[in-house]
């Protein structure tokens, strides 16, 4: 063994060693170039086996070659040690020979342990990969169970007994609003836990709202044929708390889950959102075609680039509401209060009906589709109109909220039956 260690530096200093190293590098580069044209690349199979598909091919090849080279060197060294041990057994026994023999056994033991660890390294990596896969699978199973439980509770009902007018008792089924609200809350938590599942959860809530809107449709006032014509004002009270909560979760999901509104793809077309508190919610890029918003609170709500075609926004206060880039073609804005509403040149305001609209501190200067909006609107000097649009007979100066309150009670309220007086102004 001493002779081997003495000869090793001489062997490494020979001229052919650099050529061997260069040859290994060249072979590695060539393998990296041709691997794209090989239908069954062994390096690609190794990366897939160890779950390292994203690792660069050159790095994976270098690791494989290094592992093979280390294994070959250790195996060669171990065989050399075993040969020297065998040779030592047939030599005459001397005190120095016994010491060298014990030293050879110690080195052989250490080298065997290192070689065993090197051979076991891939199997250890595979075991860790399988453990991680099993852990991930268990987490997915648990998540899907929680998702299914929440989805089941979305249509929870309970049985109760009610007394009839004739004194008899009957068992009836009612929707369990409390459990449904709890299910919606759990769906929100699951979307925050796994943002990648947020679009799926959003689709569940959208379907729920559409189905509930079939059972609890929007209420629209009928036209009362009289002289002069009046319009029935329906009391747009909130019909279902669980429906409102579902919409509120949808409007906050993009921000809480940290995903883009385009990925969320909210579709509430044809739903009944009457009387709901939608303040501060984000419906960017949402599909709100034919959606009923009458009586809803829309303060600071974002409808940027939303699809509001044929939506009904009557009797709502668009206070600081963002409708930049929104499409309001065919929308209904009867008795709607627009104050500090954010509008730009991309907002389509070719509404179908806009009777008795109140405009205050609204910049319409960049929009050229405001004719129908201005036809019977009330405004003041704070409203900026596009060039070429003749200003209606409005005050030149900015009026306070009390002025518009009086207009509302004097000119708008008489046209609707059962329309209550405004007890307070929209927030300043």
UniProtKB/TrEMBL annotation:
Gene3D superfamilies: E3 ubiquitin-protein ligase SopA (2.160.20.80). Signal peptide: none annotated. It comes from the Bacteria. This is Pentapeptide repeat-containing protein. Keywords: Membrane, Transmembrane, Transmembrane helix. InterPro entries: 5peptide_repeat, Pentapeptide-BTB/POZ_domain. The chain crosses the membrane at residues 16-34, 55-83, 103-126.
């Amino acid at each position: 063994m001493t002779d081997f260690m003495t000869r090793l530096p001489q062997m490494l200093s020979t001229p052919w060693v650099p050529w061997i190293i260069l040859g290994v590098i060249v072979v590695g580069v060539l393998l990296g170039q041709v691997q794209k044209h090989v239908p069954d690349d062994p390096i690609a199979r190794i990366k897939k086996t160890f779950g390292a598909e994203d690792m660069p091919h050159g790095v994976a090849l270098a690791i494989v070659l290094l592992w093979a080279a280390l294994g070959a060197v250790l195996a060669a060294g171990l065989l050399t040690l075993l040969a020297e041990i065998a040779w030592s057994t047939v030599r005459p026994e001397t005190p120095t020979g016994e010491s060298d023999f014990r030293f050879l056994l110690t080195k052989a033991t250490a080298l065997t342990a290192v070689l065993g660890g090197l051979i076991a390294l891939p199997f250890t990596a595979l075991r860790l990969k399988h453990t991680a896969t099993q852990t991930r699978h268990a987490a997915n199973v648990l998540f899907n169970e929680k998702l299914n439980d929440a989805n089941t509770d979305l249509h929870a009902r309970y049985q109760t007994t009610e007394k009839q007018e004739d004194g008899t008792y009957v068992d009836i089924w009612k929707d369990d609003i409390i459990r449904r609200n709890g299910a919606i809350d759990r769906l929100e938590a699951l979307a925050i836990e796994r943002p990648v599942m947020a679009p799926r959860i959003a689709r569940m809530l959208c379907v729920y709202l559409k189905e509930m809107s079939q059972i609890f449709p929007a209420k629209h006032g009928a036209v009362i044929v009289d002289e002069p014509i009046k319009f029935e004002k329906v009391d747009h009270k909130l019909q279902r708390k669980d429906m409102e909560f579902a919409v509120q979760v949808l409007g906050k999901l993009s921000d809480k889950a940290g995903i883009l509104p385009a990925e969320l793809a909210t579709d509430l077309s044809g739903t009944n959102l009457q009387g709901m508190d939608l303040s501060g919610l984000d419906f960017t890029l949402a599909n709100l075609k034919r959606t009923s918003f009458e009586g809803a609170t829309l303060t600071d709500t974002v409808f940027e680039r939303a699809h509001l075609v044929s939506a009904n926004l009557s009797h709502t206060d668009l206070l600081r509401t963002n409708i930049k880039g929104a499409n309001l073609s065919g929308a209904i804005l009867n008795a709607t209060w627009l104050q500090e509403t954010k509008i730009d040149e991309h907002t389509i305001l070719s509404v179908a009906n806009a009777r008795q609209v109140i405009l205050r501190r609204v910049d319409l200067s960049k929009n050229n589709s405001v004719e129908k909006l201005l036809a019977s609107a009330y405004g003041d000097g704070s409203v900026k109109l596009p060039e070429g649009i003749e200003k209606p007979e409005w005050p030149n100066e900015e009026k306070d909220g009390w002025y518009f309150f009086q207009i509302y009670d004097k000119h708008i309220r008489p046209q609707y039956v059962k329309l209550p007086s405004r007890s307070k102004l929209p927030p300043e």
